[in-house]
Design a protein that fits this description.
Blueprint lengths: L8 H26 L2 H5 L6 H29 L2 H26 L9 H25 L5 H37 L9
Helix pairs in contact: 1-3, 1-6, 3-4, 3-6, 4-5, 5-6
């Protein structure tokens, strides 16, 4: 029989610190995107890819907020409040996942990016696991250590989603620059 190691407040605070750093960095990145030529080229708020980016940004903020809020609740309040915070944020993440999934199937949302489509499928599956893990591991009343795999999974899928979106933006910019390059005239030798 394996025993589950109890989680310390120091670990939970470190986890919350990492999540807070990722939230802050992501918010700065969103501001840079909003001020970018790419955002303006996509027709700002009206285009399908931009609506997908906004839904994705909302999803990532919820994914990063879950380990931040729940870890702080586990340290600073009764376990029941951490469970309530987890349930509320997990429900919001499920709704946001459904929203991004709905948007990704719209034509033009991913600009035919296989990486974004694959990321959407994998993160959707991970969200299902993330929601169920505390209760699978701990029964009806999960201990603080039963939340840790879900909190770490939330950080991981938030980070991979951020990286995937960044790489797809580079890919889209590269595709756009290839389309802008003039074709050399080969008839004049």
């Amino acid at each position: 029989m394996t025993t589950v190691r109890e989680v310390t407040d120091e670990f939970l605070l470190a986890l919350a610190g990492i999540a807070a750093t990722l939230v802050g960095t992501f918010i700065v990145a969103v501001f840079f995107y909003l001020d970018s030529a790419l955002h303006r080229a996509r027709g700002a708020a009206g285009s399908t890819p931009d609506r997908y980016m906004r839904a994705g940004a909302r999803w990532v903020l919820i994914a990063y907020s879950l380990p931040l809020i729940v870890a702080l609740a586990l340290v600073g309040s009764e376990p029941v409040w951490a469970a309530v915070a987890f349930l509320v944020l997990a429900a919001a993440l499920v709704v946001a996942t459904a929203d991004t999934s709905r948007r990704i199937v719209k034509k033009g949302a991913t600009r035919r990016s296989l990486a974004l489509a694959a990321n959407e499928i994998l993160t959707s599956l991970a969200v299902v696991a993330l929601v169920a893990l505390p209760w699978i591991l701990g029964g009806w009343i999960p201990s603080p250590s039963d939340f840790i795999p879900s909190l770490l999974l939330a950080l991981a899928i938030g980070f991979t989603s951020t990286a995937t979106v960044i790489m797809s933006v580079f890919e889209a910019e590269e595709d756009a620059s290839v389309q802008r390059e003039p074709v050399p005239d080969t008839n004049g030798y």
